[in-house]
Amino acid sequence: MSGVLPPAFAKLEPFVAHWAADSTAERAAARDMADAEACAAFLTAGLPYAAKALDYLDTKGFAGFDVADERLMRLMLGLAHAGLATEILGPDEAKHALDRPAMKITRAPADAAPAA
Amino acid sequence: MESPVNIHSQPYAPPSQDELAWLGTRPIPAAPFYDPAWYADEIAAIFKRDWLQIGHVCELAEPDSFIRRELEFARVSLLIMRGADGEIRAFHNACTHRGTQLVTDVSEGRARKLSCKYHFWTFANDGQLLSAPDFERFNLKKSDCALRQVHCDVIAGLIFVNLRKGPVQGLRDWLGALAPQLENLPLAAATHFTEYVYDIDANWKLTYDNFQENYHLRFIHTRTGAMGIGPDNPFGYPEEYGFFGPHRTQTIWMNPQPSFAPFQQLGLERAAQALIERGMSPHGTIKYLALFPNVFLYGSAQQLFNHIVFPIGPEKSRGVIRMYWSGADASPSERFAREFSAMNMRDVHSEDRAVILAGQKGLASGALEHINYQTQESLCRHLFNEVEARVLAWRSEQSGAGA
């Protein structure tokens, strides 16, 4: 195990580089850059872990986060974007990706208050 | 999981033709959606005369904080500042020496005083001129050189300004029966928000109208709007409409038995859990408030969103959309739920923007003399009626003044 993520979630490490971006706008951009297969692959891998990961992070609380926890938090936020692409938009996602960048994200609470 | 909002008895029945007949059924002229002369009169008759929402008090949480707002339609830059006394005031961003803008490079900050970089006239954040180099060479009193103040008031945490010079109708009177409805929302307690902004080559009314009718829901939001339609309400029409002077509301109908995908369900459950932990209910009736001329508020604790459509030109507008939150993210689950919810909303609005653009192109071609609203587009008709009355009154005033 590399320690990129907490050990229980190590299977999600291949998705960290693309999806665990620092800000909401960057995570939205990661979705725009991913094709439908990449979004679906992330959701397929992440869905079985999502509730457990959030429970784990809730138990630790922001103040108790280490670097791997912080990365897992950002990965779960990235999963929110991939989940919308795959579950909700589905076949419409490719067309959506052309229009969506016009909706420019300027602020989000996750950016204003980075976890400790 | 049941629908997190409005639970209704079935079967659904849309608001009737009879109760909306007073709005008329005439075709609506198309030219006001692209004509530069009509647009100029709208700006003069409405946007320079009526109360406009431009922010929220959470942007001015600290004493000496300020925000800058550019109102391109009026070529006005405003500084909205919270003084040391806690009062929120709005001023033109223009030095009273020779008009130079005081703040040009930031949109928010903190300052007890602001200095003009040109000749260093310095103003307190209550607008008073504090000092000016070699001031004795002017034949002026400092007390006559304060920043030019703009009418500013706050209701339910929302900051409004009015550009009209001279006395204006009070904000509470202007909002009428909607003022207490706004105050019943958890708006004033908001401390954070998610914001996204879009520019669009479309007239402000065309942009705004899209967000006050549900007729398009099943066609444009086929996948993203599934919660808003059902077998007995296939168009997702509202429960009821309300009209309050120039303002209007609709009570949103939601499918009482929606089906959720697994990850979507996780997002909704975490959002509901976070609200309950804050002592707020994830259930309740959602009123969608449309404040004349250009503001929407979608009122529920779960999705407290605010959408302002600013006119930029006859065929250009800008939407500023915020989802307000009470308190910083209290838990990782709440952070997750907020991001999921806001990005879900952004997906819906992205679909809207694309189709509005196509509408403007069709109208601007001049192909149509009129457009048509059906009964369940009555909020659009009401907006146009209100706009038209003001523009015609303005034109009458101007022709009378010139006589």
Strand order of the largest sheet of chain B: 2-11-10-5-4-3-6
Strand content of chain B: 15-25%
Q: Describe the biggest sheet of chain B? A: 7 strands, antiparallel
N- and C-termini, Cα separation of chain B? 67 Å
Rg of chain A (CA only): 14 Å
Poorly predicted ranges of chain B (pLDDT <50, ≥5 residues)?
A: 1-6
Give the topology, please.
The complex is a heterodimer of chains A (116) and B (403).
Chain A: H1 16-19, H2 24-33, H3 36-60, H4 67-89, H5 93-99, E1 104-107, H6 109-112
Chain B: H1 17-20, E1 28-29, H2 36-47, E2 52-56, E3 65-71, E4 76-82, E5 88-92, E6 108-110, E7 113-115, E8 122-124, E9 129-131, E10 149-155, E11 158-162, H3 171-175, H4 178-184, E12 192-200, H5 204-210, H6 217-220, E13 240-244, E14 247-251, H7 262-277, E15 287-291, E16 295-299, E17 305-313, E18 316-325, H8 332-364, E19 370-371, H9 378-402
Helix pairs in contact in B: 2-9, 5-9, 7-8
Q: Care to give the gist of this entry?
A:
The complex is a heterodimer of chains A (116) and B (403). With 116 residues, chain A is mainly alpha-helical. Helix content of chain A is 63%, strand content 3%.
